[in-house]
């Protein structure tokens, strides 16, 4: 018997109530049985996205949402800015290339947050730029980009949209779409929404819908206008992933019961406790300036392999965190504190890291020193 | 208390064993926990598709599979033949248009099966046609198209692929991909595979992979080459719909236990019993020549509204069948006998139709006459 703990930045644990809801017998998506599910989801997603716009749901991974945010608003040859500070920032460039869109890269050193002035400068120099594409929380580095400031810039421009990949951000941190003036806001099911992977969500501002009218990139399955026309009639363009929708209704109900402010405060506290716990054990956080409250990328101490720490957490203690991706492989490991997470998940994570590293010969700090710091944050000391 | 019966042509009922498997705690798709799931699914899908090729799985509806079958093998301006004998045949034309592909329509009167000689003739006249796109089972009409004969034609042509939408056909009827020489074979999760909607499957022949190398249609999320490169390493290009994959492993296990021949024989018998039962009650089948074994489209008797029959089945007896789509709305209703279905589902369907129509004033045949004919087929009389 070994209990399993899922502490990876997606998929995150699914609450038993949601698993149970998804285990009900199948219903037909075009029958009256599904209407209450759609209505509950429509209302709940608008609440979560803090928008008066419809939030569109497609069967697909987060990448489907990212692709839709390019193909539905741009034409081949159009210019966009792509903020690239990690594996998911890179993906904007790859998608743009696949669709013939001309992406101007704003490279950001992995671990740093984007320099907003650089983006502003580019937009000033070239008013033909139609979109700024950025992650809110870059999952590969655990960095938070300053979305609010970017939105202040783009919302003054009539022909430039701000597209935010909030896949590990929405439902973690306050990102009020309408209040900030975000144009396209994307998330996925398997992060703060506490669902299995398989759904992507995209909300679209009026400004972006205007761009949509002239956007010529090829699209069919991910045609958001078609989804909007359907959801307004409590319907879907294509067969929806019924069981995930039902689970989504339940997860939104749980989130609404907790309340947005409480959700954000919980994530802030858990993230803070994790970072302090990690530092209390003598380790450092990879995000130098602006760490995300969704996950923490921890720098493997000198002489210790991050991949081995990840493996030992799994094999010795049943904890599935995440390793580093691409250039960070072996250099960091990542702990999620997003979604269905509470204080004891963080205690588990920190104490697990302590025991694993102690067994590997790490002498940087005594056992329990990280846990104690995390506990202090948790009780507000 | 009213028991519910799902007899629609997708989603179809999900077996309790599959629901249970999908209710397990979430696991991470890049951890070793998921490898056995991937391996089981790879083996099972090859078996089901009767192919030595990898079967590629994407998070999306069946339409995602249809789009991928165009965007991965064609370039803008390329010519294809689209067999259009129903709502799903029409979809080829719409997808081709969205990607700038030049689709030559072979129109088929709804309810009829494609005239294979017409397709052969077009291919002879224009060797530049790169693909023939067709449904095996057209879900809107309940018609079966002669895939084997089409494959005999296209397999002689080195530059023309046969793309078969087998969304309501695979796992119902014998469609041996490799033996017949089908180039792209598509299905979805919510039909004979007995899963919730949310997965599309695409298998690709060597001939089609050759076309893929020069295909210039825009694609990223549905890039099949990327999925192939990943699945060969027991991985996925993007985050897979983990719970659906786990359910898929269980469903494939159940199907393998039953065996392909038994699965096909069961569907043949249930389809035959349904058709005979319907005729035994004095009604007629919409598919005039070549009915599909996946579902039966029943013509509403003169003076009776098909939509009302559908609604009464639901409201009076808890049976969710399906109405007619587009031009068939009100004219037919559709009963599925696909996936997790046995003789008593058919008895339920036929007796439900009898009771509903009798209550609506239908006098074409006595109550029980359809059931008796269906029973006779079931016991081989």
TrEMBL record, chains A, B:
It holds the Pfam family Aminotran_5. Residues 5-326 form the Aminotransferase class V domain. Substrate binds at residue 334. The modification N6-(pyridoxal phosphate)lysine is found at residue 191. It comes from the Bacteria. Signal peptide: none annotated. InterPro entries: Aminotrans_V_dom, Aminotrans_V_PyrdxlP_BS, PyrdxlP-dep_Trfase, PyrdxlP-dep_Trfase_major, PyrdxlP-dep_Trfase_small, SP_NH2Trfase/AEP_transaminase. One of its GO terms (molecular function) is alanine-glyoxylate transaminase activity. Keywords: Aminotransferase, Pyridoxal phosphate, Transferase. One of its GO terms (biological process) is glycine biosynthetic process, by transamination of glyoxylate. The keyword Ubl conjugation does not apply. Its cofactor is pyridoxal 5'-phosphate. Belongs to the class-V pyridoxal-phosphate-dependent aminotransferase family. This is Aminotransferase, class V. It comes from Leptospirillum ferrodiazotrophum.
